[in-house]
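Homework-ish question, so no full write-ups if that breaks the rules, but can someone show me the predicted structure for this set?
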Amino acid sequence: MTLVQNFPFAAIMMCLAGGVTCVVLRPRAARAFAVLLNAVIAGMMTAVLLFTIRTGESYVYLMGHFPAPWGNEIRIGPLEALMALMFSLVTTVILAGGMQNICEDVEPDKTKLYSAVICLMTASLLALTFTNDLFTAYVFVEINTLTSCALVMLRYRSGMALSASIRYLIMSLLGSGLFLIGVVILYNITGHLLMEPIGAAVRNLAATGEYAFPLTITLGLFAVGLALKSALWPFSSWLPDAHASATTASSGILSGLVLKGYIILLIKIIYRMIGPEVVAAEGVLNVLFGLGTGAIIAGSLYALREKDSKRMLAYSSIAQIGYIFAGIGLGTETGMICACIQILAHAVTKPMLFCAAGNMASEAGGHRFDQLRGMGRRRPLLGIAFAAGALSMIGIPLFAGFATKYFLCKAAIGAAGWKGIVALAAVVVSTVLNALYYLPAIQILFDREPDTKTGQAAGRGSVLAAAAIAVFLVLQFGLGFFFSRIAEIIRTGLNTLA
Amino acid sequence: MVGSNLRFNNFMVAAVIIFGIGFTMLFLNRNLVKKIIGFNFMDSGIFLFLASNGYIEDRISPIIQGGEVSVSNYINPIPAGLVLTGIVVSVSVTAVLLALTVRLYLRYHTLELDEIIAKARTEDEK
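A: Not a homework solution, just the prediction itself:
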């Protein structure tokens, strides 16, 4: 075993230890520590990704060197490494970009708790990505729930954030309750908690036709539970308030990353435990596909009538989550690649939009569009970032969002029956709708200002924000230019998953 | 046939009914404290389901007594371990929920979620 192979486990442990360390540091040191820790982990994940791409296969890491029935495992392949790299990198950049807003929005002595929560959040996301054990997955799902609610509620003296976070927590708990009873039923009929033995047992059951009914129920419970937590429409009523009332970095992390952690878990469940061919036979995919295409349209329609920039972005997240579920629901390999590409594309785009909108809002004194008028002219870099993010969400070529639409169309043409036509129609309608609400937003930002406001002096926070925006733009175009290369990595990753 | 084993699995039937009651309460009740009670009902239902899975008639808990080490005398200990983990998770989530409820009550003087949301909205628009 080489040194690199220890990195995923070490990264999870470093985040957990880092979360504890942040509590005893001074607030300023804790904030810097959280950013640096995530940056270091991003570096480690790059090494892991290069290692897995070179070997082209996945490996199992035994914790404590106890073999299968007793021990706990994590499993690392190209797909997991790519997602983990994305989680840690985007967390680093959005934390730096939202630092000024964190200092304004969170009570000064609580910013160290904010950093602690961020570290625990990264730990739970990495663990959800890597774990090979279903019950460990449940525990980290709950850690993820609690930390993401803490990210919303740490907003200083905001009743809206408090009420939004309790709604968020309640909906998440409904989802994890369903997920847990699914885990229990699956343990009951297979007798295992590790994903590989469960996969073998489920294939055996599907072949013999035993326990067909509990198997369907379990799959439904997993799908609905995780869909509730990842805000698939119509289970998404909690999302806009929670994401819009949180501080900039929280909004970016919540919509860019947290929702994706559960979806990656669902993809792992489909590929590693139930088996794609069994899932396709169950009809659960059709439900996910239907809700996904519904979400694409419904999210855009809600966003269309929003006058508040952050709420508009939150509703747009619902539509973008719809793309992921539509891709999964198509049930083909290209559909799954589309879902994974969309996870990446949305993760580099939406935090950038939130970062730009949040920094402009803190200067303009509010995040409604009438308050933001002309901000793009005053802060050109933020304005350009917002415009680039908006064009990416619409799906203009060379931006990351185009890759999703390209692969969804490709998957739709390959899919049999009604699904392909519905998916193509959804792509067309949603592109028009996205343009209808993003283009006026860009126009407002670059409008001439009605009166000349006195601009604030650019502080250190805005330098950090500018650096963050620059990194986001590089990621954005990197994904937009090289998406076929990344799709190849995802394809190898999906093949090693099964 | 579906349902033919119901009378042998009476613990599981009870567990699923408790889970359903708790789920409905957490989902539909408008009172925050009742929601929290519902959450605890829901988790208790799952724990009963798990514990009844691991229990085997006429066997004892897996603690070695009098040098007896044969596996066939003991119940399955894994579900008990899972229940313990689940209880820890459930307790910490309940603590967070209660703390949030206290903060909301101090601010809005009500436990009804609808009223809290309405008050927070009007406050936000000011």
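Now go work out the reasoning yourself. Hint: The two ends of chain B are 61 Å apart (CA to CA).
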